[in-house]
Amino acid sequence: MQPSVNSKKKRSVLATLINAFVWVFLIIAAIYILAPLVFMFTASVMPAGDIMKMPYRWIPKGFYWQNYWQGIRGNDGSFIYLRNIFNSLVVASIVTMTTVFLSALTGYGLAKFHFKGRYVVFMMILATMMIPFEVIMIPLYLIITKLGIQNSYAGLITPFLVTAFGIFLMRQYYVTFPDEILDAARIDGASELNIFGKIILPNSIPALATLAVLTFKGQWDNLLWPLLVAQSEEMKTIPLYIVRFTAEKHTDEGAMMAVAAIASIPILILFFRLSRYFISGAVVYSARKG
Fold first, then answer.
1. Gap between the Cα atoms of 103 and 208, Å rounded
2. What is the domain range of residue 36?
3. Residues in Cβ contact with 267 at an 8 Å cutoff, skipping those fewer than 6 apart
4. 44-50 long-range contacts, Cβ below 8 Å, gap at least 24?
5. Verdict on whether the full-model pTM lies above 0.70
6. Which candidate among 9, 43, 192, 233 keeps its CA 20 to 30 Å from the CA of 220?
7. Is residue 55 part of a domain?
8. Mean pLDDT, consecutive 10-residue segments, the chain of 290 residues?
9. Is residue 183 part of a domain?
């Protein structure tokens, strides 16, 4: 009996040490990830002189809201940042909606419809993920120019209506969806569109939410393509404004942080609004795999 009691104590001590190590690692990782965000938001309400002082004062003495006013107003007083925010919202929202819907539709077809050559089609779609955007950027730009939609919302949106990653993500999610449910709906006389709209989409909200967040963030941070297509200040997006604003000689560090903080708010709101679906999606996916 004694060896058994000792072995249980050793296992208990080992489990406690492992849990403590995991907690310490998670706390350090959280600090490492959150520190830049905390710095950005605290620095955005500080005068430029306080930001550069060492050691850094993480709790501001007061709130210097002039930084936000300078960022929104701009050094030239044009308030063009508001238009750039609107442009980013339009582009990111439309691209997110089209990517989510078309990826779900294509992924469902590749996962649940058996037709000749579907694996070849799927592999060809995956192969496009291996091609860097910089390789196809110039051909895309020439096409957009020939179509006459340069410096427009259509030019900013068209190349990103659907992505190979989105199709891959939704296809892998639908592969685990039970075929019995679909067969029962077909026996009851439901059409394929009804099955997709009333069964597939409502039961794939976690995957759709994940894809929506990733797509929206990708377009919100997109710098290279708008740099080519958007020629006028009225059509530029947030990343282009930030680059131009930080390069101006009258911009101080506090205003830079304020502009970056404003640009981060929509992403944070979207993430926290949809974060609960990530956990439920992981649980559902694990249960199906089990």
1. 9
2. 2-43
3. 216, 217, 220
4. 44/68, 44/254, 44/257, 44/258, 44/260, 44/261, 45/254, 45/258, 46/254, 47/254, 48/252, 48/253, 48/254
5. yes
6. 43
7. no
8. 63 82 93 89 86 82 87 88 94 95 92 87 90 90 92 93 92 88 88 88 88 91 92 92 84 86 89 74 46
9. yes
